[in-house]
Specification:
single chain, about 425 residues, alpha+beta, five-stranded antiparallel β-sheet, three-stranded antiparallel β-sheet, 10 helices
Length: about 425
């Protein structure tokens, strides 16, 4: 917003009067304040891995060419659907789906290797021939795989993403955003195989059926290697670029128990991409802190539900994972605590009884998270309650009749023994 000075209202001058000469004063516009923090990228985002909270954003939803960050989705689908030791073979069909003049490791038709080796090649060497093998390994053909990429993106809420190929080759309809890429990474990093691939500085592909030597790969992402851009806190990274879309970079880093995701798209060169990512991580680790609460410390809650003095239900509230709360770095977190609290505990309807993990800072409630709920219902109808009692009384009556019958036979036997001989 541009602010302009306000002036007191003056008398309207007489147009016939000769104006007295005076200096012309033109008020200067007050410039808009510069943002407290910014980066060079066209689209950028910094996200907390655990909570998904956005700690910094800069046009985070702008649709841009993601370049080889497209392969993050390709490799993720491979790790979700292929066993690491499954053998993949470069088919004639897959061989024809990519440009052989760049971005390849020159895999040959008929060459076979494990899915794990192909995944490493696609991730850390950004090999298009490897991506083609993975696409065919997961789906019947590349077109079907691209549909799967887009369906997965939609399921993850990647609303500013559309894939046209599994490589990241420039295409006006192959686009994504910094935030969508962070959403994908947050999900993919839950897969241990993907996490290992994303964080590998190097890998050696063993000899195959068509080669007698190993292929030694070095990660294209300099954040993971002993270079001038190396960051000790980084747990994974991938860089890409196209002539039309510029440079893109996605990385994760961990410090003091807090793991962050940083993504930049539309950078002018690799140097700016690396510097922006390093700057964003420093911004996040400097300005925020993570406070953890274990599920064991929070505990469980049990509620017995009564209606008309009848026990109608039991409710079991639990938490399935630990909790991580982000706070400003300068805030004293020593008074932070978490407590399981039941809501509407005296209600007779189990549906309206809930429980939350409530977070307090200096006894001030600062947030809540719902607990898991498991309900056990009991049948209190007349048929359910009187039926068992009636059956019990019937059983007692049968036992009584049987006892009388046995007693009658016993008395007859005694009578015969005691009677005088005829």
């Amino acid at each position: 917003m541009v602010l302009t000075p306000a002036y007191a209202e003056e008398e309207t001058p007489d147009p016939e009067a000769s104006p007295e000469p005076e200096a012309s004063v033109i008020p200067e516009e007050t410039p808009e304040p510069e943002p407290a923090y910014s980066v060079n990228a066209q689209s950028a985002v910094l996200v907390d891995m655990t909570s998904g909270n956005v700690l910094f954003e800069q046009d985070k939803d702008k649709q841009l060419d993601p370049a080889s960050l497209t392969k993050l989705m390709t490799v993720y689908l491979a790790t979700e659907n292929l066993s690491p030791q499954k053998e993949l073979t470069m088919s004639a069909e897959a061989f024809e789906t990519y440009d052989h003049s760049f971005g390849v490791l020159w895999f040959e038709q008929g060459e076979t290797m494990t899915a794990e080796s192909v995944e490493y090649a696609a991730m850390i060497a950004s090999a298009n021939d490897a991506a083609a093998m993975l696409a065919e390994g997961v789906s019947a053909n590349q077109a079907e795989f691209i549909n799967r990429m887009n369906n997965t993106a939609s399921s993850l809420g990647m609303n500013h993403t559309n894939y046209q190929n599994p490589f990241g080759i420039h295409n006006a309809e192959n686009y994504s955003s910094a935030h969508d890429t962070a959403l994908l990474l947050r999900k993919a990093m839950q897969n241990e195989q993907f996490r290992t691939l994303f964080g590998a500085p190097s890998y050696s592909i063993p000899p195959t059926n068509l080669t007698g030597v190993s292929r030694n790969l070095v990660n294209d992402c300099a954040l993971l290697r002993k270079t001038g851009y190396y960051l000790e806190t980084v747990t994974g990274g991938k860089i890409g670029n196209t002539a039309d879309g510029g440079f893109s970079l996605a990385a994760t880093a961990k410090q003091n128990g807090m793991e962050l995701i940083a993504v930049v798209l539309g950078e002018q060169n690799a140097d700016l991409a690396y510097k922006d990512i390093a700057s964003m991580f420093e911004y996040g680790f400097t300005n925020f802190q993570s406070v953890s609460f274990s599920s064991a410390d929070i505990g469980e809650k049990f509620v017995e539900v009564y209606k008309n003095k009848k026990h109608v239900a039991d409710i079991h509230f639990t938490v399935s994972s630990d909790y991580h709360v982000l706070l400003p770095a300068g805030l004293d977190a020593s008074t932070m605590r978490a407590e399981a609290v039941v809501n509407n505990e005296t209600e007779t309807n189990p549906d309206v009884i809930t429980a939350d993990v409530v977070f307090y800072l200096d006894d001030l409630m600062v947030g809540t998270a719902p607990m898991n709920k498991e309900v056990t219902l009991y049948d209190t109808s007349a048929a359910a309650t009187l039926g068992p009692k009636a059956r019990l009384y019937f059983d007692y009556a049968c036992i009584g009749v049987l006892a009388l019958f046995i007693l009658r036979i016993f008395l007859k036997m005694i009578h015969r023994l005691l009677a005088p001989p005829a």
